[in-house]
Amino acid sequence: MTCDCDCHKQDSISKLKRCKERNKTKEKKIKELEKKVLTLTLICAIIGTIVGKEVVEEVVDWYNTFDKVKSTLTTSSPRIVDYTIDRSVVYGSSPEPGTLAIVGLIALTPTRRRR
Hints:
By secondary structure, the protein is an all-alpha fold. It has a domain at 37-75 and 95-107. The protein has 2 helices and no strands. It has helices spanning 6-76, 97-108. The longest helix is centred in the middle third of the chain and has 71 residues, at 6-76. The two termini are 34 Å apart.
């Protein structure tokens, strides 16, 4: 049984105020953490773009080196068969190097859980 006396009303009001204060501090902490997550996500996206570009450049350099070795072998030894792929046939397209960073940015973006 509850009564409607002033002491119980004051107690309920003080509990409500404490709850609101705790909620404000939690919301403030959540906003700070969201800012940190956003900052780290942007940093990862930038690093991913830079590293992705460097990796693509290394793969292209490796492919060019392989092409040079293959052309040297085919010109020096006539017994080696040249199995080249028709360059006009397209088997698919690869995304740009920055695409991985953008996909990572979208995947790591926090979703708001509380309203």
